[in-house]
């Protein structure tokens, strides 16, 4: 197999160049794919003071719904040089199917390319605040790309498995990437390449490597784990199964790196895994949480 094509025969170099162009464009926008006017550490869309340590959105006031959380709150976590804007489509998808605003949250890391240590510290505060605000005992978490290993590092380093009901990883480099190995060997370890050493594909050569330690047990705790990978994702050339986790439900979709997050099928799967409902069940009333009788029929049927 040449370096110019992927295992499926589509032009690897062209897809990779397109991905890198998108990364550079987002970096010029302050780490936002849509160039929104919110600073990364802007906490105005959250119901607590973040101290300018991070930003994000969530809660009934932000989403314009009735207060309260009946379902497990969901925390969405973005990837490298992205932000909470990545999850606006998911919020709309969930709101249309009965979720309330207090059940939908997304974090903005202060740095567009945060280290795993920085992500873990931010996530620990953010999740604690969500639990306090909603009086929930647990959250479900959905991460994309760098956010996936960021979530896993937070769970391991802070031992927060009891705070998470369901974990969904979208296009996460759970077993590293060849691209990060090449970048690290070339000395690219700052800025948008801050994570290259952590996510080297040959991490398992060193038993004390942080990713090796993380993967000694890939799905620990009483957590339901799910992953989605894209068969057309250039970031996983040479290691297409990197996003999969031993012990998880692992799904492959015919899409690219961002498509694993934005594709309708991906949203449907995430919704079903988190809610336990089929996303096109007509009993899910738009804008209202759906209660169920013990026999399984929807209230009001």
Main sheet: which strands, in order across?
A: 1-3-2-4-5-6-7
Percent helix range = 25-40%
Shape: globular
How many domain regions?
A: 1
Number of strand elements = 7
CATH architecture: 3-Layer(aba) Sandwich
C-alpha Rg (nearest Å): 19 Å
Largest sheet: 7 strands, mixed
Structural class: alpha/beta
The CATH C-level name is: Alpha Beta
Runs in which pLDDT lies below 50 for 5 or more consecutive residues are 1-11, 286-301
- What share of the residues does DSSP label as strand, in percent? 5-15%
SSE sequence, one letter per element: HEHEHEHEHEHHEEHH
- Counted by DSSP, the helix tally is 9
Roughly how many Å apart are the termini? 57 Å
CATH superfamily: Alpha/Beta hydrolase fold, catalytic domain
Here the CATH topology equals Rossmann fold
Give your account of this protein's structure.
There is one protein chain. With 301 residues, the protein is an alpha/beta fold. The protein has helices at residues 12-28, 60-63, 88-95, 116-134, 146-158, 178-185, 210-214, 259-262, 264-275; strands spanning 54-58, 74-77, 104-109, 139-144, 164-170, 224-230, 249-253. It has a single domain, classed as Alpha/Beta hydrolase fold, catalytic domain (Rossmann fold, 3-Layer(aba) Sandwich), CATH 3.40.50.1820. The protein has a seven-stranded mixed sheet with strand order 1-3-2-4-5-6-7, sandwiched between helices. α4 packs across α5. It is globular. 43% of the residues are buried.
In short, what is this structure?
With about 300 residues, the chain is an alpha/beta fold. It has 9 helices and 7 strands. α5 (about 145-160) links the parallel β4 and β5 (about 165-170).
